[in-house]
Structures are given as C-alpha cells and as structure tokens.
Specification:
Blueprint lengths: L3 H19 L3 E9 L2 E8 L3 E10 L13 H18 L4 E12 L2 E11 L4
Parallel strand pairs: 3-4
Antiparallel strand pairs: 1-2, 2-3, 4-5
C-alpha cells in the first residue's frame, strides 16, 4: 500500500509528464533506476535529452520544493544520467530540469525550471 507521500509524488510525476508531452517532449523513461539512484523522468525533444527531477508538495507552507534538490541530489542525478547516456549510447545534448508542483486548493501550480543545474567539473 502506498503512503500519502508516495501518492502525492506519483500524482506530481503524472502532472509533470502531461506538461512535458504538451511541450512536445517524448517520454523515454519514468522512474529509471541505476543501482539505488533514480531519475524521475527522462524525456527528449528535437534538441535535448532532459533528465527531470520532480518535486511535489501538498501545500506551499514550507520551503520551495526546488530547494530539496540539494548538491548531493544533483550529483546523484548526474551520475545516473551519465550511466543512462553511456548505456543507451545517446548522442545528444543533455539538460537537467526540475519540475515543481504545489497543490493550491483543488488545483496544482507547476513550475518547470529548465537548465536548473549543470555538472560541475
């Protein structure tokens, strides 16, 4: 049985996928795993392979959801994305996005942050 937090996260990912599809992205993967690491959504458009981290909150009374994507979380996403690109033999420009979803009454407020972070060398 799923917890409320898991249900909220799953709903957020579904909303994010719908948003990306409306923006003409093709969804390649959802909840793709590399060991213990996970990428919420892998999508492609005509220019990029996009690795999306989705953060969903049931209210905006706490800190902004994107602040939960810490330096360590970014590092893990980059590591998983690197493995994805190598495993799938991807030849395309890569981008890391964050999609936040916050429940506002009976609706949801979505914020798509493109190029939210980049690998640090």
């Amino acid at each position: 049985m799923m917890t409320d937090k898991q249900k909220t996260g799953q709903l957020g990912e579904e909303i994010a996928i719908n948003h990306l599809e409306q923006q003409k992205f093709i969804i390649l993967e959802k909840n793709w795993r590399y060991g213990h690491l996970e990428i919420d959504i892998v999508a492609r458009n005509d220019r990029f392979i996009v690795f999306c981290e989705v953060k969903t909150r049931s209210s905006s009374s706490f800190i902004a959801p994107e602040t939960a994507v810490t330096w360590q979380k970014q590092r893990n996403l980059i590591k998983a994305a690197n493995n994805y690109v190598l495993t799938k033999k991807i030849i395309a420009e890569v981008r890391f996005d964050i999609i936040t979803i916050v429940k506002k009454g009976e609706s949801y407020l979505l914020n798509h942050i493109e190029n939210a972070f980049m690998p640090r060398w």
